Amino acid sequence: MVASIIILSIREIIMINLDDFSSFYVANWKLNGDFEFIDNFLKDLKTPKDKKKCVVICPTSIHLDYLSKKAVDVFIGAQNISSHYEGSYTGEISAKALKELQISFCIIGHSERRQYYKEINQEINLKAATLVKNQITPILCIGETLEEKKNGLTKEILKKQLLESINSSCNKKNTIIAYEPVWAIGTGLTPDLKEIDEVHEFIRSCDSSFVNFSILYGGSVKSNNSKEIISLPNVNGALIGGASLKSGEFSEIIKD
Ligand code: PGA
Questions:
Q1: What is the pTM of this model?
Q2: Which of 20, 75, 115, 170 has the greatest count of CB atoms below 10 A from its CB?
Q3: Residue 131 per-residue DSSP state
């Protein structure tokens, strides 16, 4: 009886309270990495002493359990989730299964999923709901394409994506927003600092409930630009793709 209560309580994942952290560094490994890569990455990784910095690594789904058993001082996140709770949805992964693996975060609505897998805001909204219900923190991505930017539609697009894809159960304690201009992802291009801060400020002002949300910037973040981006008043951290695949480079980004 006592043993089963202990096992139950160990397995009972308590949702991260985002208010406990001052900044967030999320590594999005996309479809990269294998077991050997993970071993080497962890060997060279230097995590910050400042425990107010929240470091999250998001490997492929296959590697979630392996990484979570090996990694120290980092949280583990998934890159996607089914919008369904369970049922006849071949190939999907449920939030309930992530919860069983004690996964704390999950990226949703990444532009690569919107673009290649035709994900729409309404589906992303359901994904956010199922994550929150399972005590997993959604990292909700929004961002405009180059064409939309050129046509002056950035704010309109971001507002629509955000209002339609954020679920009513999301709040500043359980959900992170990530602004990733599509044209900045993997290109080496970034908006200038003033522009990044202005867009983040705009996101906060879209709805009174967003004011205190943690908002990350993503798109070509590297060790040579991360500090100045993250220190912007309206930026609470970064979502890092390519540069998060190099342990030394990522350690530099998350350094105290
Ligand atoms: P990048 O990717 O850092 O390689 O531009 C960011 C992302 O897609 O999340």
A1: 0.94
A2: 170
A3: H
